[in-house]
Write a structure and sequence with these properties.
Order of helices and strands: HHHHH
Keywords: Membrane, Transmembrane, Transmembrane helix
Strand content: under 5%
Shape: elongated
Number of helices: 5
Number of strands: 0
Radius of gyration: 37 Å
Helix content: 40-55%
Low-confidence stretches: none
Structural class: mainly alpha
Largest sheet: none
Mean pLDDT: 79
Length: 141
Amino acid sequence: MNSAEIHPMATGHIPSYVTQADGSDYLFTFMVVFTIGLVVLIGVAYFTLHSIPEKMAHENNHPQFQLVGILALLALFTHNGIFWIAAILVAGFQFPDFAAPLRSIADAIRSLAPGQDKEVVPDPPEPEIELEPSEPAAQGH
């Protein structure tokens, strides 16, 4: 029997993922592509999840939009879920505007004052004038 001859059963039972004689490894190549794709998809999902509070606040034109953004960034960089939960809660609820009723009360009281027909506007500050020295600096005598 010639040593160059291959037994007929030699390649029939070997699975396709076993490394070929030419060095090509299809299983390794598939796993590298699959792992890189999976890491990219997990990263996209992670960043999408962390941007949900900001999207909510932006769509509702929320007055505390910057606070929501800061909380979402803190949650992203610290991996602390309480910041993300706080961002969702702030984005989901509108805080009552306590200043508006107080402002209207102050305006109503101001309009009741005698002799106050219009709002008092303070005079603009006068610009500062720099004076130039009358004599040049003493030069070496």
